[in-house]
Amino acid sequence: MSDGRWIASLCIARVGFSLIFVAYSASLGLLKQEWGLSSAQAGLIQSAWHAGYLVSLFAIGFLADRYGAKRTYLATSIAACASGLAFALCADGFLSALLLHGLAGLCSGGSYTPGLTLVSERFAPMRRGRVMGYYLAAGSLGYALSLWMSSLLVVTTGWRMALVACALGPVAASLVSAWVLRDTRNVLHPAGQSNPLRALGDVWRNKPAMLAVWAYVCHSWELLGMWAWLPTYLGVVFAYGREGGAGAAGLGIAFAALSYFISMAGSIGGGILSDRWGRTAVILLMSLASLVCSFTFGWLIAAPVWIVVVVAIAYNLTSIGDSSVYSTALTELVPAHCLGAAWALRSVLGFGAGAISPWVFGLVLDLGQGAPGTREAAAWGWAWTALGLGALLGPLATLRLRAMRESAQMAGGKR
Length: 415
Known about the structure:
Elements: H1 3-18, H2 23-26, H3 28-35, H4 39-67, H5 69-90, H6 94-106, H7 113-122, H8 125-156, H9 159-167, H10 169-180, H11 196-204, H12 207-239, H13 246-277, H14 279-297, H15 305-320, H16 323-333, H17 339-370, H18 376-390, H19 393-403
């Protein structure tokens, strides 16, 4: 199979696996009412997904080092199918949703870092940023399709069918994956089968790699918090000063889907630019632009809707524009035999921050809405500002990495 057909097919599978990732976020506004959730409880359910996801990524990194990325990727796809359907069919309140959404996250990590490893094994460094961008853009397409389907289904057949439709994505993705990887070799690195703690220690002592990891942690805080609350916030914007309900929620979901769809250009463009300009240059450009969005977005609740939608698109473009670059940089800073350990450490730290940020967002929102004399606009403004505050250290870590001589290992010396 040619490289083009191979990556295109793997990206199609990534789209299917990603449908379940934002299914809960798409219906969050309606589920808050249906299940009687506070904003903090609603955010905690989303955080449960990220908590389960980070545990899976931590474990899967070591499994990929020991058993190979291909074998790990295919084996974990079965668990992703079963857990996604369990959440869609059985969640009916705060406790069941918390447990089942966490379980779905726990079983969904196999399509991410093993997929990135498969890409890095097949493509040379000078093309890797571009191809990583394609793979992560496929995830954004999956998020967009999930939100688009949900925007139609929640107003026609209800939120339950929206969840079920999204949960069928991993089933289709598993079938596509088995086909596209049938002739792909399962690569084993002998050194990767040694003590996982030793590999983890090697990564921890790798200062350039750890700077890339810490920058990614700040990036994850902002990105995953934004993804969790964007559909609900846009629904509030559409309903602000008017009647709300499912119609406004559906519009919010639909326009969030539009911003996800356009953000594909961010993933691909960021990867291409990082091959041309260097990894740290693109990370700095994207992270600083997304910080501007974090500090302004929540204060626009009463602005004309078209302005909020434009900012939402820019927010998604810039916050995801450096995602593939962090992944590519790590493949160039870490020896191949402990790349899985690097993914594991990055995942537990990055998705740990991403697991907390939706809950912190909801907590700030609850506190703001409950404070005497605080307007709803201010509550949302402070909630989005909290995402920006958590991401502030990312550009500083990137600047430090750029100044190190080891950064010349990235993008053929373009840093």
